[in-house]
């Protein structure tokens, strides 16, 4: 089915005009955004509705785009000095914006640390309190997770040390048993030598008695 071409003229019906304005405005802003993204172009759109309501879109700062438009409208496009002056002004404005943002972030950081709170109203203090509470909650959560990991790691180390201690205890008992067995074997060897020595001493003593008896009786000494 072929779509009927709409005649470009003012729409008389107020409701239809408002609906068309809303649809076409969104489509226009979408196309501007696509053009800016695809072609890296600086785009600024300012739209006032029939009732005077403002709608705007800008790919960067709207004020910078307006200033840039003014400079381009007033200056000669072939003048490098004016172009350099414009670039310098843009850099100064960017520096001023960044400086203000930096100061604002520093102020917020100090307030989070409990400083410079005197100038804040009740609503701002309550908002700051919620931010701090949310930060503390996240810190406590991460802290708890780290505690659990540390406990799990310590339990593993404890089990490992207990296993190593058990192994060392077994090795110590085995070494003590081996030492006792070796000592008993040495004592057994010493006892056999003592019996042999004692036996030799007894025999020698008996031989001495026989010799003395033979001398007293005038008998020959046995050998």
From TrEMBL:
GO molecular function: DNA-binding transcription factor activity, RNA polymerase II-specific; protein dimerization activity; RNA polymerase II cis-regulatory region sequence-specific DNA binding
Nucleus keyword on record: yes
GO cellular component: nucleus
MADS-box domain location: 1-61
Residue span(s) of domain K-box: 88-178
Keywords carried by this UniProt record: Coiled coil, DNA-binding, Nucleus, Transcription, Transcription regulation
GO biological process: positive regulation of transcription by RNA polymerase II; regulation of transcription by RNA polymerase II
Family matches, as PROSITE patterns: K_BOX (PS51297), MADS_BOX_1 (PS00350), MADS_BOX_2 (PS50066)
Coiled-coil region: 144-178
Subcellular location: Nucleus
UniProt-listed SMART domains: MADS
Name of the protein: MADS-box protein SVP-like isoform X1
Organism: Nicotiana tabacum
